[in-house]
Design brief:
single chain, 227 residues, alpha+beta, 2 domains, 5-stranded antiparallel sheet, 12 strands, 25% strand, Septum_form, Septum formation-related domain-containing protein
């Protein structure tokens, strides 16, 4: 059984793999993930064992780890949606499962940019409950969202814009591009004005979900402002 609060030096590819590779490292050394929860897999269905890589077992972990994520990193739902922290999870390999392993492991990682992890530092428990943690692991951009030079980066890296507010868009079927785009205009304008040095002269941006992102669970938009 993996240990909670263990640290790991994972690459991005290792973090998104279904099974874990490598061993834990001392948390005082450079690391990119921290284990925040472990548990037992439910591999028994109607008296029969199902494979560790079956959809049923994988769905259990895909539900359990995100549900425990917020309790560990703290902050509000909006704080988490405005951060670059993400939950990732692992199960035993088929060979390990055949030998009796039936655990799952949940880790927290921070995206430095697309396809790249950032090093973690300090305690990660309740990190988004602090202004320092929200600032360090916040979601920022290299330019205004929607422009050619825009790239999403962690706020501890060089940046010029910051995601500052969330626009909830409800549940159900995707409302369509025009509706989700219109929903954030006044909300984001007001959010940017609230943080601008000059409320008569300021910039703002709004990033709304595509139909594909909506299907994957992003039923909200984000407001941006220069930082």
């Amino acid at each position: 059984m993996p240990a909670t609060k263990a640290c790991h030096a994972l690459s991005y590819d290792e973090a998104v793999a279904p099974t874990a590779s490598g061993s834990a490292v001392p948390c005082a050394k450079k690391h990119t993930s921290v284990t925040y929860a472990v548990g037992q897999l439910d591999t028994l269905v109607d008296g029969h064992l199902v494979a560790v890589d079956s959809d049923r077992v994988q769905q259990q972990v895909a539900s359990e780890c995100p549900s425990r994520f917020g309790l560990f990193v703290g902050g509000s739902l909006d704080d988490r949606r405005l951060s670059m922290l993400r939950p990732v999870w692992f199960t035993p390999t088929v060979e390990e499962s055949d030998a009796g392993a039936s655990w799952f492991r949940c880790d927290v990682v921070a995206l430095a940019a697309d396809g790249e992890l950032a090093p973690l530092s300090g305690p990660m428990a309740d990190v988004l409950s602090t202004s320092e943690g929200r600032d360090r692991y916040g979601m920022c951009g290299t330019a205004s969202p929607g422009t050619a030079d825009f790239a999403r980066v962690i706020c501890s890296a060089e940046h010029s814009w910051r995601a500052i507010a969330v626009v909830p868009l409800g549940d159900g079927a995707y409302p369509g591009k025009e509706k989700v785009r219109a929903a954030g205009q006044s909300r984001c304008r007001d959010a940017a004005a609230a943080v601008a040095p000059d409320t008569l002269d300021y910039q703002w941006g709004y990033e709304w979900p595509t139909a594909e992102q909506w299907k994957a669970g992003q039923t909200f938009g984000r407001c941006w402002a220069p930082d």
